[in-house]
């Protein structure tokens, strides 16, 4: 299969390719980004989805598929491709799609989604990230729609024995890594800071500075983005890892829902029905529905090491035994795609 890269982080398409390869699928990543123009012109092209780089990308992808004839071509996010391109690809290969954000929700009018949404009925199959998007995609005309939840990556997300220096650098009472929204995260983290707990926030400083009260921001600055091993060290070094859900994306879980327990960290998450079916409350994770409940749980578990460590340990066991890893997700993805390829609605000549 051929995975057409539309996201930017290595936890996405390269990780899919590695996992699928380990499952016996011949897999290659086609980097769509390298065909757009450099610098500001490239940023403009990627924003408006128009220009010589976008045309060059579509031409080179069609040539690649024509030459290599993959059984399946996955357009990850698929922002760059219009209905005409999808039709041309379907003459050569089974065209699958996936999106990890919410193109159907409050931000569906963003420019980045306009080609994807108009082309959606022409995909052979499409996977979405959250349950509400299954209905959304069908209403937009998608023929076959599957739910593919986020995952943890076993070779990245695991408990770490940290040095004293790492513990000093990354340790905290409460840690959160993520973007800013005007929701519970502001009140929850602000109250924990006000209660004089050691809080670490990782994300884009300029947005957090605007969102947090001045006194709270001064207590936690500088805020910066962390990736890779540093992100995992921050989880492992902290007593409580907070997990908030994006209202922009209508999330009911997120990647951190699985990364945090997989790293052996204590998960304190917003309460949703979906989360509570995956991790038992008070046994494998803890939950909150308000800033007051968040602070109550922080107070209790900072003061009770044994209870906190027991829940973190059981959360690690649960995330492993319930197969929330990338390999399990790719097996699920393959089963769906194989089923769709066998459907009578498939019109091209790709075979397995």
Kindly provide the name of the CATH class of the largest domain: Alpha Beta
| Structural Rg | 22 Å
- The helix/strand order is EHEHHEHEHEHEHEHEHHHEHEHEHHH
**Net shape:** globular
Strand order of the largest sheet: 2-1-3-4-5-6
CATH topology (level 3) name of the largest domain: Rossmann fold
Question: How does the major sheet shape up?
Answer: 6 strands, parallel
Features:
globular, 352 residues, 6-stranded parallel β-sheet, 45% helix, Rossmann fold, alpha/beta, 11 strands, 2 domains
Give an account of the 3D structure.
With 352 residues, the chain is an alpha/beta fold. The protein folds into two domains: 2-150 and 326-341, Rossmann fold (3-Layer(aba) Sandwich); 164-321, Rossmann fold (3-Layer(aba) Sandwich), CATH 3.40.50. Helix content is 45%, strand content 14%. It contains 16 helices and eleven strands. The protein has helices at residues 13-22, 39-48, 52-68, 83-90, 114-119, 132-139, 164-170, 184-194, 205-211, 214-220, 228-237, 256-262, 273-278, 291-303, 305-321, 326-341, and strands spanning 2-5, 28-31, 72-76, 94-99, 125-128, 145-147, 172-177, 199-202, 238-243, 267-270, 286-288. The strands form two sheets. Strands 2-1-3-4-5-6 form a six-stranded parallel sheet, sandwiched between helices. Strands 8-7-9-10-11 form a five-stranded parallel sheet, with helices on both faces. Residues 346-352 have low confidence and may be disordered.
């Amino acid at each position: 299969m051929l995975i057409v890269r539309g996201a930017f982080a290595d936890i996405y398409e390269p990780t899919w390719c590695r996992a699928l390869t380990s499952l016996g699928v011949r897999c290659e990543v086609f980097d769509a980004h390298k065909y757009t123009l450099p610098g500001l012109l490239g940023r403009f092209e990627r924003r408006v989805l128009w220009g010589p780089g976008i045309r060059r990308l579509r031409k080179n992808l069609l040539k690649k598929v024509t030459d290599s004839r993959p059984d399946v071509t996955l357009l990850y996010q698929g922002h760059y491709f219009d209905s005409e391109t999808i039709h041309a690809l379907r003459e050569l290969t089974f065209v699958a799609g996936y999106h990890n954000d919410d193109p159907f929700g409050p931000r569906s009018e963003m420019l980045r989604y306009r080609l994807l949404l108009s082309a959606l009925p022409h995909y052979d199959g499409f996977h979405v990230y959250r349950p509400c998007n299954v209905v959304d995609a069908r209403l937009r005309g998608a023929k076959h729609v599957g739910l593919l939840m986020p995952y943890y990556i076993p070779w990245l997300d695991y408990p770490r024995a940290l040095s004293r220096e790492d513990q000093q650098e990354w340790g905290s009472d409460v840690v959160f890594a993520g973007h800013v929204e005007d929701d519970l995260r502001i009140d929850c983290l602000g109250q924990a800071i006000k209660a004089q707990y050691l809080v670490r926030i990782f994300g884009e400083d300029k947005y957090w500075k605007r969102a947090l009260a001045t006194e709270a921001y001064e207590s936690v600055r500088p805020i910066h983005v962390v990736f890779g091993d540093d992100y995992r060290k921050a989880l492992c070094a902290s007593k409580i890892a907070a997990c908030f859900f994006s209202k922009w994306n209508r999330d009911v879980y997120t990647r951190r829902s699985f990364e945090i327990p997989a790293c052996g960290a204590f998960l304190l998450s917003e309460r949703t029905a979906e989360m509570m079916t995956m991790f038992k409350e008070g046994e494998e994770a803890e939950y909150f529905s308000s800033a007051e409940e968040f602070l109550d749980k922080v107070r209790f578990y900072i003061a009770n090491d044994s209870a906190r460590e027991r829940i973190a340990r059981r959360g690690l066991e649960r995330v492993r035994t319930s197969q929330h890893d990338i390999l399990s997700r790719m097996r699920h993805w393959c089963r769906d795609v194989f089923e769709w390829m066998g459907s009578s609605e498939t019109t091209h000549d790709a075979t397995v």
